[in-house]
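cron nightly-structures :: item 1 of 1
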Amino acid sequence: MVSIICNDELFSWCQVPASELEGHPQAKVPIQVLPTPDDVHRAAARMMADEVIANNSKEMPTRWILPCGPTKQYPYFSKIVNEECISLRNVHVFHMDDCLDWEGRPLPLDHRFSYQGTMLRIFYDPIDSNLAIPVSQRHFPDIYHLDAISEEIEKVGGVDTLFGGIGYRGHIAYNEPPHSPWYTVSAEQFRNSKTRILHLNEDTLIAVSQRAVGGCSPAVPPMAITMGMKDLLSAKKIRLLSDTGAWKQTVIRVLLFGPQTVEYPVTFVQGHSDVLVLVDQATATAPLG
């Protein structure tokens, strides 16, 4: 892939101090910088709980797209729900992605990289049973019916909020920039992409192995299923969280100041009407400051 971002531009963005990111006149999406990763997780959990409370008061459903990374907001969310007795009976969740083995098959639910198994353990199971999201309203991507999750989103009338993370090269879910020299994907095609199965890029495998298994890259499943950008961008609100420090200092600045490009897929949220990026101070730090 030939970059449309010149190094001089990139280097200038990477010198913008953290203190200048909020309200920067050239920023294309708003950002909020919080002191610590824990502050980011707590803020996201409170946002989620308050959205359910507001919708419940109006007898309206709450419809989310949720990630299995970041996940540290979920224990705070379940604690709030249980302590404040917030009913989740009218919440619908669409899970954005999952890992697959080298043959493109689902992993066992007890596998460390099964996102479905992880979400069952850390998001669903800790909620009191009388408050829990019904099983029929928990939607995971299906390798045997790729359009199923899009069809379910349409049935419930769309998505209220996407909560997601940001990858090293700007992927949301596993919408990674294509690296093959043998084909190209236009910005319009990528923006309208649907649920699909793919091989993970090498930089993703390295990042995941470093973060999760001490650099043991053969332990990381090499394939994934992901919701496409079309469904992600259809959400009424987009809330992106990042708390991984130096890994994300550059991509955050590309999101704020760069063009919309397949090279950094997260930049496609720039055209959305309601976006907020939440990061901690370490992630906001200028990599070339």
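cron nightly-structures :: done
The mean pLDDT is 96.
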